[in-house]
Every structure is written in structure tokens, then in C-alpha cells.
Here is the input.
Amino acid sequence: MRSLFGVLFIIALTVVSCTKHTPSYPFAQFDGNRLDSLRNPAWTVSERQVRRYIDSFRLSRRDTNYIDLAVNRYYAARKPYLWITRWGCDEKLDTLVKYLEEAQRHEGVPENRFYLKTITENHQRLKSRNFDAGHSVSRTLAQLEYYLSKSYFRYCAGQRFGYVDAKKVYNHLERKEGNPTKGEAYTILFDTRVERVNDAFIAYATEMLGRNRIEELLHEVQPRNERFRLLKQALNEPHRNKAERQTLSVNLERSRWRPAEDEARSRNIVVNLPSQELSAYTGQDETLRMKVCIGSEKHKTPQLQSEVSHIELNPYWILPKSIVRNEVLQHVGDTAYFERKRFCIIERETGSRVAAANVTEAMLLSKDYLVRQENGEDNSLGQFIVRFDNPFSIYLHDTNNRKAFSQTRRAVSHGCIRVEKPYELALFLIEDDREKEREAIEETLGEAAELRRKERAEEGETEEVKSRMKRCKVEKGVGVEIVYFTAFPAEGDSVKFYPDIYRFDPVIGKFLNQS
Here is the structure.
């Protein structure tokens, strides 16, 4: 490594006279002792000084970012330089700068994410040999080495995994009320299993840089999904105003978060919370779209990814303990309330019912008892529910209150997603050759069932529950994705903007802009 450094001479060794003269030894009259007077510390490259400068750079900042800490550990361990050589810097610098400029100008990455100004100034100083006491060659090389590495690893990890740690940000936004258990002080708002940067990726990026395969890696880490392409295209349309550009920048960041289990599925359901819409896809084709009602601001619907397991027709509703605690507990002793709501209290172990008059607060709060709403048209879940694995008891379901679908703002539920077209969604989920299941769907949700309901409503009849709950298995491979995009691909290659219902955009924007 020491062979990398030596003394840079700016002396007459490279100067040749253009006049004619008699050949002679050019340094015959030169006193070797005078060489010291030409030695300038600003021009002297010292490995010791380069290391000291890098140490001062890394120790002067209180870095907490995973990537920055990894870079700091690398240089603290006195590992080989990644960018500087005895000749300065090679073409790797130009390659990286090209990608950094693209990210800032066309992909919504803020300028302070990278150190382009510092890199450019020091590279120019090195090329022009513009050194002085305050900007020595050792300091210039140290700045290039350190800030090129920070920018390189920030860029590679950011493009590959996202510049913002989605789980860390979303899941530290809202503190739970009351006295939550240790480790559960915050409400979980993001439960999508996204890939995250790790030591293996950093080692791989370091190896690719050392093997001078930087362009290959920078190309490899680029986001490939269609959302990113369309949002980037929209960002670079010349008519975009500042507010739209900020929104697009935040949503481009969201589209960098890659699901950890990104397996191809033949059918998918995507719910975008800001647009309050559900889209069902067969392959890449959207085959169904409908309005949905989502969780209120107090009961936000979390972002998640899962797979449909089954659907239920004429489902019962098992009330979550949070709803029991906040809405049912106060009605203990009011038997009319339980009768009106069609709530029954069931002992879990025996399955036996407890008379409403005998119910106590302790029983309602105990895990040994559950509160269940009987099935039928008056059930809060309506007559259809889509079940999929998640830790929140969040599902897609019908509703007994369809007036909300006529509203512009439909953030009204306790977190579940109410669907506008349960019949169409049920048919989408069940294969065409499942005749018995499709007949059950038709009987419960089809036109004949709807006609019967209207006739009863016109005649003022009260429904008498006769239908039993029916469970229909959905063939494996139907994905469910609940996302949050305030700018989202629409028809064709267009992008549509939606209200920031949960006010998440400023939060993501704040973390995206951190230097």
C-alpha cells in the first residue's frame, strides 16, 4: 500500500526548453541540497495523512444509518482503499457520478442523499492540481475516497432496497394507548415482508467494486417493477409542479421496497388505501375494480402482503378484543343492546352460550370467552368474507351498510376492508369448474338473493336467519397486497393522484431527505 504514495513533484523535470542550444548535462549547475526548498507539504501525499483525514470525516458525524456505519467500520479496520490509486481516481468515479446524477435529476432522490458537490469539487481539484495549505493533496484524496464510498453504498442499497427503512419508519409512528406490553409500544402499520440490506449485500457490492465491475452492479440494483417505471415517467413530464414532484418522489421510494417473497402468482388482489379501491388481476390484466371502505384514521388499515386461504358465505363475526373493550364493555347488563346487535357470548372451551344477563366485564375481557355476532344480512361482515393470514384480524368482506360507498372519503371501518362488489369478487376467487361453490355464491350473493332482499325491505319484513355459514376453499396462489400509494398507475401509462388519507407522505419525505 505504501507504494501508492510518494512525493508529487512539480518541478522542471517536465519542462523542456524550446530554444536551440548545445547539448549538455542539464543539471550541471544544480545544487541537490536546494531540492528541499521545492518540497511543499500541500503537494506531498502521505498515507498517514490520508488515513487521519478519513478518520476525522467518519468520527465527525454521528451516523446511525446501517450503510454509513458499515462504511465507517470498513475504514476503521484499515482495509484497502476502494477508489484512489497512485494516479488519483480512475473511470469508476465517472461511472458512479453518472448514476448519482440520474437518480437526483430523474428519480426523485434528494440532492443531500449523496455527496456530489464534494466529489465533483475534489475531483476537479485533483485534475487541475489546485492544492494549497487548506486543501492538500492528501486531504483531497481522503475526501474522494471516503465520500465516494458513502455515496456508492448509499446508492446501491437505496436503489435495491429503498432509501427509507419502511418497517422502522411506519412501525414507530403511533404509540399504543394504555399500558402496552414491552416491545409492543407502537401500532404495527407496515407488515409487508420487504427485503432489507444486510452484510452479505455490502460484501457483494464491495467485491464488485474491487473487481472493477461497478457498472454491472449499478445496473443490477435498479428497480424493475412497472409502478416504478410509470412513476418515473410521470416525474419527468415537464408540466409537473413542485407539489406533484414531491408526491411522485415519495411514491417512487415506496416502489423501491421489494417484497421478500416476490413469487409470481396467476391471480392477485391489490388494495390501494389512498385511492380506496380494489383491483383484481389475472396475470398482468386488471379484470375487476371496485370501491372499498378502509380503516378510519384512528383505526388505520395496515399495509401487508398475504395469500387468500378461503372465503366464507354467511359468516359469523368474532369481535376483536379491542372492539369489545372500547365499544361493548360499557353495555354490560343491557340485555336489549346484546339482543339488538345480535351479540352472543360463548365460552371457548365448551362452545356453550352465556345469557347476556349473566355476562360480567371480566368475562368479556377474558380470553376464555368470545363475543360473536350471529350471521345473516344484518351481520357487520355482510354475507361474504375473504380470509387470509395476517396478525391483525384484517379481512376483505361484505357489509350491511352500503351507504358508505357513495361517499368520497370512505375511511370508516375498524381496519377491515369492505368491498363494493362481493359477488363479483367471490366469482373471481373461485375456479370456473367449482360448480357447487359457484351455486352457493349465486344463492347467497347473486341477483336472485338481491331481489329477495329488496322485496323483504319493501314489505318491511325482518330477516329470519336460516342460512348456515359455508366455507369455500380458494386454490393456492391468489395473492393479497394492501399498499399505500398517493400516486398510482391508472389506465394506460397514466398516473393518478389521491389524497394522503393517513398523512404518511410527509413522514416518508422527511426520512427520504435526511442526509
Remarks:
- Residues 1-32, 34-38 have pLDDT under 50 and may be disordered.
- The chain has three domains: 2-210, 268-313+381-484, 317-373.
- Residues 2-210 form one domain.
- The chain has 17 helices and 18 strands.
